[in-house]
Design a protein that fits this description.
Number of helices: 8
Radius of gyration: 53 Å
Strand order of the largest sheet: 9-6-11-12
Shape: elongated
Number of strands: 32
CATH superfamily of one domain: von Willebrand factor, type A domain
CATH architecture of one domain: 3-Layer(aba) Sandwich
Strand content: 25-35%
Mean pLDDT: 81
Largest sheet: 4 strands, antiparallel
């Protein structure tokens, strides 16, 4: 065995991290090297090295599981991506084991251990020690989802967080009375934890109250047994809890066998009592809840739920399976079959580009999206996509008129007189495109029944009106003449203004010249007069 003093473990929860980039060996592989002795499950450590690898074969998986459980060890397999499938299969055989992907340089080993530990710590799995002969145990778990589970699922609860409370109900059944007068110990503990519950079983095969029994008591199915110690001891030839069965009708050995499903250990699936080889199911506190079936294996209250309603409120629960109403399907009847939410404005389901599942469009073409697969950001416009083929088939023009019959026969063409005769454009794609002759033509494109493409074209085109040349020419000539006259008038006006300014300047200069001649004459007269006066003196 693995001894704590060899490894240095205290009495705590133990994690064993096994890191490798290869597979694993199990019992029998040692024969390739001539080693045939089975592994004894002991350490054989010398200087922290296993010293008996040349003597003992590899341990079997069952042996490994036993030793891990005995020593309260939880295993974390940190392996590379190539060996993930192998160790995941091994994990399914080893309780409380986890597998993580180890990077090539082992840089993520710490995070891997943290994630694996969180995964392991969220599981609670019960195990028990070996049971005495004739004793069986049945588990029933009440996990945080509120669903009661039995059988192997009754041993465990998953996805448990800190603070969550879970309850396990354990039933111990003795098929016969053990007369060895010994107390038998049964230990129950959660895997990976040190805590355990010990049950001491002692069997009382004979009681003092048997001396005061009531022979042929009416409480034993009309006098078919002796009522003693609160139970019936049946007369010869009668069996059953109340001596209600005859051994001529039911074999004592087969009575419980007929109440076990698939030869299992649970009588009437732990939901009923075996009476005369027939299961009589227990009653529930809620009269609307009931067990049913030959082995009481069915019930009408453990089906899947949706929005906290049994079978989503759209069906009934039969033998833990939802039987949905006419317009619903799914495990919890939460998938409506009504396709109304998937109808596009053109009254097509998902615009012919998808399927309606549970009232939601699932687009078959990844390019389309939206509530009814109506949007395609990477697709060409519908009008542009079909424009050339519509033009060549409707009017015999366009870029594809040479190969029109070969390239454009994928739709059905229907011609109408004008735009007003086209089908309702609000429910379809209305297109307006320019033809080769620069005229506009209108058409509508739609997909019928998801496959048939239809095109409706208005034969009447909207062409631009040719301009009237004569008014344009006359207007241009009149404009030129008017502009010329305006320029002449402006030139004449500027000339007149200039001439008047020059004449005014001339008149001013002329007046200045007359004033200067008069002033000069006065000066000269004064000078002459002065000379004459001087001579006289």
């Amino acid at each position: 065995n693995l001894f704590p003093e060899h490894i240095g473990w205290r009495n705590v929860t133990r994690l064993l991290v096994f890191s490798t980039d290869a597979g694993f060996h199990f019992a029998g592989d040692g024969k390739l090297g001539g080693i045939v002795l089975p592994n004894d499950g002991k350490c054989h450590l010398e200087d922290n090295i296993y010293s008996m690898s040349h003597y003992y074969d590899y341990p079997s998986i069952a042996h490994l599981v036993q030793k891990l459980s005995e020593n309260n060890i939880q295993t974390i397999f940190a392996v590379t991506q190539d060996y993930q499938p192998i160790y995941k299969e091994l994990r399914s055989l080893i309780p409380k084991a986890a597998v993580g992907t180890l990077s090539s340089n082992s840089s993520n080993v710490i995070q891997l251990i943290i994630d694996a530990y969180n995964s392991l710590s969220s599981e609670v799995i019960l195990e028990n020690s070996k049971l005495p002969a004739g004793v069986s145990m049945a588990y029933m778990s009440h996990c945080k989802d509120g669903i009661a589970r039995r059988g192997e699922d009754g041993r465990k609860c998953l996805n448990i967080s800190i603070g969550d409370a879970v309850t396990f109900t354990i039933s111990v059944t003795a098929q016969e009375c053990l007369k060895d007068n010994k107390k038998h110990s049964i230990k129950i503990k959660p895997l990976g934890f040190n805590e355990e519950v010990e049950i001491l079983l002692s069997f009382i095969c004979e009681c003092a109250c048997q001396q005061h029994g009531e022979p042929n008591s009416p409480r034993c199915h009309g006098g078919n047994g002796t009522f003693e110690c609160g139970a019936c001891r049946c007369n010869e030839g009668r069996i059953g809890q109340l001596c209600e069965c005859s051994t001529d009708e039911v074999d004592t050995k087969d009575m419980d066998v007929n109440c076990r499903r698939n030869n299992g250990s649970e009588i009437c699936s732990n939901n009923g009592d075996c009476i005369c080889g027939t299961c009589v199911c227990h009653k529930r506190q809620n009269p609307e809840e009931r067990y049913s079936g030959k082995y009481c294996e069915c019930d009408n209250f453990n089906c899947d739920r949706s929005e906290n309603k049994l079978c989503g409120g759209h069906g009934r629960c039969e033998c833990r399976v939802c039987i949905c109403d006419a317009n619903y399907t799914g495990s919890a009847c939460d998938c409506p079959l009504d396709t109304t939410p998937c109808l596009a404005p053109n009254q097509q389901i998902c615009n012919g580009r998808g399927v309606c599942e549970c009232g939601v469009c699932k687009c078959t073409d990844d390019r389309y999206q939206g509530r009814t697969c109506e949007s395609c950001r990477t697709c060409p416009d519908v009008c542009i996509e079909h424009k050339d083929c519509v033009e060549c088939r409707a009017f015999g023009t366009g870029e594809k008129k040479k190969n029109c019959s070969e390239e454009c026969g994928y739709f059905v063409l229907e011609l109408v007189d004008d735009q007003k005769s086209l089908p309702d454009p609000e429910q379809r794609f209305l297109c307006k495109q320019r033809a080769e002759n620069d005229c506009w033509f209108y058409y509508i494109y739609e997909v019928v029944n998801g496959t048939q493409e239809m095109v409706y074209v208005a034969k009447k085109q909207e062409c631009p009106v040719a301009p009237d040349i004569l008014p344009i020419v006359l207007g241009v000539v009149v404009g030129i003449v008017l502009i010329g006259l305006a320029l002449l008038l402006i030139w004449k006006l500027l000339t007149v203004i200039h001439d008047r300014r020059e004449f005014a300047k001339f008149e001013k200069e002329k007046l200045n010249a007359k004033w200067d001649s008069v002033r000069w004459g006065v000066v000269m007269g004064n000078v002459v007069q002065g000379n004459i006066m001087g001579q006289l003196v």
